[in-house]
Specification:
The protein has helices at residues 118-138, 150-157, 189-197, 205-225, 239-249, 271-281, 305-317, 346-356, 379-386, and strands spanning 29-30, 39-41, 55-56, 68-71, 76-83, 86-97, 101-107, 112-113, 116-117, 144-148, 163-167, 171-172, 178-180, 183-187, 251-256, 259-261, 267-269, 295-300, 321-327, 337-340, 360-363, 373-377. It has 389 residues and is an alpha+beta fold. Helix 4 (205-225) crosses helix 5. The longest helix has 21 residues, at 118-138.
Length: 389
């Protein structure tokens, strides 16, 4: 037991444990069918930096053996676009690594939840109802929520207007007239809200999101190019003032939620694909249901800090809720070890070992109920990441 490299004969005990031990413009605009998510890659790199969950702990050397710190959740903002009782759009903004890497996830108002469509939740319960339903759908709770109407959108873009964008689909009026064509579109501030809220006749909810994707691509480029201190109005430490600037500064993945449109026109999500989407962009989530994900302590057993970021990304993709990050008491670990502290988490431990691609799984007693699984990666994981060995 402990965080020192295990000896050949010092294997940790296995078996049942008491329950009380537990828990630019993009180079490519890809437009797929309505049942398939839409992606724009503005570059997408592996997790880097410390703001993919800000480290909170004692100010000691993070490269030293024994260093350990709690992490804050990945910053997220739910942006709700609505006028009166009509919901036009729901967008999740994520600062995977603030100023370096982020994501924008578009969710249509017609998305089905356990309590009806998102647009109905808005009409019934406002932003609280929408945020609760998004938490249910994604399995993670947004850290902030902001509501904007058409006038709010005009204010948000005014410093960089007009916004030029390349749209793959036109916006048609109720009689089929062209309001905005495909190709180059130029939007004045007052045009942005109606453009995002608009629907062409017989257009599917997912297809309509291509215009959201095109707008955000063009707008973030204008924000990044601007030198204006108030390029996005509002406070710089919260809301769109923070998230819009940070997304423009870094590389961002823009995508629509994965689902399909049923015969009634509602969007039914694919839970497995949605889980993968969320795990990819939110390495340190706020869980929607307390205790729904195993709380993981991630320790570096080799001393290369970049590998901690790589391991965190792989574990997050597999559903880990990483709450603490640090280093083993001693470096020199040859073999990665995934230790579960309650038998109920054994299947999760196996899944995390598989996600890392190497290592052993053991049962280990730990008198700390705030941790369900401890992962200590060794030289075998380093070799996988570097291609050596």
């Amino acid at each position: 037991m402990g965080d020192s490299p295990p000896s050949a004969e010092g294997a940790a005990p296995k078996g049942s444990l008491p329950r009380w031990w537990r828990w630019g413009w993009p180079l490519l605009l890809l437009v797929l069918a309505a049942a398939v998510p839409l992606l724009v890659w503005l570059g997408w790199s592996a997790i880097s930096g410390s703001s993919d969950g800000t480290v909170v702990g004692d100010p000691i050397d993070p490269a030293a053996p024994g260093y350990e710190a709690f992490v804050d959740p990945t910053p997220t903002l739910l942006l709700v676009h609505a006028n009166g009782d009509r919901l036009h759009g729901v967008t999740l903004l994520v600062l995977t690594d603030e100023g370096t890497e982020g994501a924008v996830l578009f969710i249509p108002p017609e998305t089905m939840t356990s309590n009806g469509l998102l647009r109905d939740r808005w009409a019934e319960s406002g932003s609280t109802g929408v945020a609760d339903s998004v938490a249910e759908l994604l399995g993670v709770r947004p850290g902030e929520t902001q509501v904007v109407d058409d006038a709010g959108w005009a204010a948000l873009v005014s410093a960089v207007a007009p916004v030029d964008l390349m749209s793959a689909v036109p916006l048609l009026g109720p009689d089929g007239e062209t309001l905005h064509g495909a190709g180059l579109v130029t939007l004045a501030p007052a045009d942005v809200g109606p453009y995002l809220a608009g629907r062409s006749p017989a257009e599917s909810p997912l297809e309509a999101l291509t215009r959201h994707l095109s707008f955000w691509t063009g707008w973030l480029v204008k924000v990044e190019e601007s030198a204006a201190p108030d390029v996005i109005p509002g406070e710089t430490d919260r809301g769109m003032g923070r998230f819009g600037r940070a997304l423009a500064e870094g590389e961002s993945l823009l995508s629509t939620i994965v689902g399909q449109v049923d015969d009634s026109g509602s969007v039914v999500l694919n839970p497995e694909f949605v889980r993968r989407q969320v795990n990819e962009i939110i390495p340190f989530p706020i869980s929607a249901v307390d205790g729904s994900l195993p709380k993981v302590r991630l320790l570096n057993g080799v001393g290369d800090l970049e590998l901690t970021k790589a391991a965190a990304r792989e574990l997050s993709r597999a559903g880990a809720h990483i709450t603490r990050i640090g280093n083993a008491a001693e470096f020199g670990w040859e073999t990665t070890r995934v230790a579960y502290h309650d038998t109920g988490f054994a299947p999760h431990a196996e899944a995390f070992r598989d996600a890392l691609g190497t290592g052993t799984v053991i049962a280990e007693e730990l008198p700390d109920i705030s941790v369900d699984i401890t992962v200590t990666f060794g030289a075998d994981f380093s070799q996988l990441m570097t291609g050596d060995g």
